[in-house]
Structure formats: structure tokens, C-alpha cells
UniProtKB/TrEMBL annotation:
This is PQLC3 protein. The keyword Transferase does not apply. It comes from the Eukaryota. Keywords: Membrane, Transmembrane, Transmembrane helix. The chain crosses the membrane at residues 12-30, 42-61, 67-86, 93-113, 165-192. It comes from Urocolius indicus. InterPro entries: MannP-dilichol_defect-1.
């Protein structure tokens, strides 16, 4: 049987997520610097992904709706370690690890905690995009920020709403994906804008 549009959406999303942070990692490694990449943005993104993943596991969402999140989280962790290494702040890695692992277990101590965290998840994830935007606006330089990584993030957000809607109706999750799509496109456009300005200077 030929794969349907939904199957193609699944596979394409997983394929993109499998390599989504690699362009950013490559840019940081090639330059030996994480200039322009917001640590605050990355930490908030990690927090949002962990809450979202924990929520979907807790409520028994189909595996297809969240399988890519462990892959992205692993890539974010590697990227964070590289950023901390190049900025000389590796001592913070243990603190961040303890905080995230502790938070992962605390989320499901009570049902109201995971529900509240999910209600705040969109704001957390949105704050991560805004933190990167603020960093770009302040420096007026895209530095080593990868436009390809951010554009792939936009693609995954664009492909997820239909999958989520079909498998498990959730307006809250749908709103999150649409919000993240808009902000990812905004960050991508901002990166390209400052890159164009730098080339014309």
C-alpha cells in the first residue's frame, strides 16, 4: 500500500528532526564560537520540549505525535554542551542537568502540576524564540545562528498540527504548534535579514 499524506508527514517530520540541530552544531564547531546563539533561548526551548514530552507520555498520546522530541532534546543537550565549552562555562552543565532531571520527575508528582506546566508550555517555548530574537536585535548580527536549523523548526511545526488533530484532538497543543510556527519563521527571517545586511556592508 502506498503511503498516505499523513504517513509522509510523519516520516518527513522525523527525518527533519533527526538532523534539525546539525546545521547549528556544524556552524558552532566550524567557528569555534557560539556567537549570536542565545543560551537562554536554548534552555527555555529544552524546558518547553521536556514539558511537552512529559505531558504527552503522561496522558498516553500516540507515539507518532511525540517520537521526534527525544531526538531533538538529545541534539539540544549536545548543542548546549558545545556552547558552554566554547564560552568557558562547562561548570554550569551539572547544574543544568540536575535542574532538568529533577524537573522531569516533579512534573508528574501531581496531575495539576503537569496540567499547569502544559498550560505554561506555549509561553515557555514562545519565550525561547523571543529570547533569540532579542539577542539578534541587540547585536544586529546573526553570528553563528543557523537559518537552516530555524527554518527546519518551522517546517516541523507546520507538519505537526494535522497529525495532532487526527490522532488526538487537542486545541491547546494545536495552538502551541501554530504559535511556534509563526515565531520560528520570524526568527529565520531575522537571521536572513542581518546576514544580508552584513554582506552588503
Amino acid at each position: 500500500m502506498a503511503p498516505g499524506p499523513l504517513d509522509l508527514a510523519h516520516w518527513s517530520t522525523w527525518a527533519v528532526c533527526a538532523v534539525i540541530k546539525l546545521p547549528q552544531l556544524a556552524a558552532v564547531l566550524a567557528a569555534g564560537s557560539a556567537r549570536g546563539v542565545s543560551v537562554g533561548s536554548l534552555l527555555l526551548e529544552l524546558a518547553g520540549f521536556l514539558v511537552f514530552l512529559r505531558y504527552q507520555i503522561y496522558y498516553g498520546y500516540p507515539l507518532q505525535t511525540y517520537l521526534e522530541y527525544p531526538i531533538i532534546i538529545a541534539q539540544d543537550v549536545v548543542l548546549l554542551l558545545f556552547i558552554l565549552h566554547f564560552s568557558g562555562n562547562m561548570k554550569r552543565a551539572l547544574f543544568y542537568a540536575v535542574t532538568f532531571v529533577g524537573g522531569w520527575y516533579m512534573l508528574t508528582l501531581q496531575k495539576w502540576i503537569i496540567d499547569l506546566a502544559m498550560n505554561l508550555c506555549t509561553f515557555i517555548s514562545a519565550a525561547s524564540k523571543l529570547a533569540q530574537l532579542q539577542c539578534l536585535w541587540q547585536t544586529k548580527d546573526s553570528g553563528q545562528v543557523s537559518a537552516l536549523t530555524w527554518s527546519m523548526s518551522a517546517y516541523t511545526c507546520a507538519s505537526k498540527p494535522r497529525v495532532t488533530w487526527i490522532f488526538f484532538f487537542s486545541l491547546l497543543v494545536l495552538i502551541r504548534f501554530i504559535t511556534m510556527l509563526i515565531l520560528n519563521i520570524w526568527v529565520t527571517a531575522t537571521i536572513l535579514h542581518y546576514r544580508k545586511i552584513k554582506k552588503t556592508d
